[in-house]
Amino acid sequence: MKKKILILGLLFSFTTASSQVILSLLFGDKLNSPTLEFGLAGGVNFSTISNLDGAKTATDFNLGFYFDLRLKNPSWFFSTGVIVKSTVGADGLPVYSLNNENLDNTFTGGFVDRNINYFYVPIMMKYKFKNNIYVKGGTQLGLLGKAFDEFNNNYNGENVEYKNNIRDQIHVIDAGLAAGLGYRLTKGNGMNLEIQYYHGLVTVMKGDSSPNQYNRSLYVTVGIPIGKGKAAKEAAAKKAAAEQGGTPVDK
């Protein structure tokens, strides 16, 4: 059952961001230049909420795109983008009352998984070493999408679920510090393997009842440049044509 849920989660992750992916594949080379790299990034994130009783690590998938702008010093980059799909939160929380006798009886002895979806925008500085290892650090801003508590229990031999919408209880804006470590698999246009940690500084819940609860997430991602090789060839062709005094022919 868990394997099926993970597979469905992966399919849903890519479906919800399908338009961004299609646009990226079609126009990726137009967004790349000798100083700008554009690509898709996705992977797994492990999240929890600090100081929340019973909180266990929640595992989900993330998908987005990134921009790396090279600065005058070729080792330094301004790194940003959008994590289009990123569900954070915590699993295994104790059941609370839903103010409905039937629901409360059904889920007594069960557990609650808290799912909060944000659109995250990292704003970071990145330094790349000569051995293709890089480090990055900065801030990350989040805009709330959906938020719900999923109640789970085994009732009369059957697995039952109920989703309680808690969006109006969550702060619309999240923000915090982010730091990452990565490795470029090959020189030039290779993939990036990266681990990034996010330390939220804005309380998750509204009000004063949960003043010390913050998002904590660890992302393990793969970044794939889109169209960078094609963009580099076109730039080289234009440069060669300019040096020869001609005009490159588009193919």
Mind explaining what this structure looks like?
- By secondary structure, this protein is of the alpha+beta class.
- The chain has one domain: Porin (Beta Barrel), CATH 2.40.160.
- The chain contains four helices and nine strands; from the N terminus they run ααβββαββββββα.
- It has helices at residues 2-16, 18-31, 101-107, 228-244, and strands at 36-49, 58-70, 76-93, 111-128, 133-155, 158-165, 173-184, 192-200, 215-225.
- It has an eight-stranded antiparallel barrel.
- A hairpin with a 2-residue loop joins strand 5 and strand 6 (158-165).
- Helix 2 packs parallel to helix 4.
- The N and C termini lie far apart (50 Å).
Q: What structural keywords apply?
A:
single chain, 251 residues, alpha+beta, Porin, eight-stranded antiparallel barrel, 21% helix
Quick summary:
With 251 residues, this protein is α+β, with helices and mostly antiparallel strands.
- Which sequence of strands runs across the widest sheet? 1-2-3-4-5-7-8-9
- Average of per-residue pLDDT values: 84
Number of helices: 4
What's the N-to-C terminus distance?
Answer: 50 Å
Number of domains: 1
Strand content: over 45%
Q: How would a textbook summarize the main sheet?
A: 8 strands, antiparallel, barrel
CATH class: Mainly Beta
Provide the CATH architecture. Beta Barrel
- According to CATH, what is the topology? Porin
Number of strands: 9
The helix content, as a percent range, equals 10-25%
Which residues form runs of ≥5 with pLDDT under 50?
1-26
Order of helices and strands: HHEEEHEEEEEEH
Query: Structural class, from secondary structure content?
Result: alpha+beta
The backbone outline, from C-alpha atoms, is elongated
Please compute the radius of gyration using only Cα atoms: 22 Å
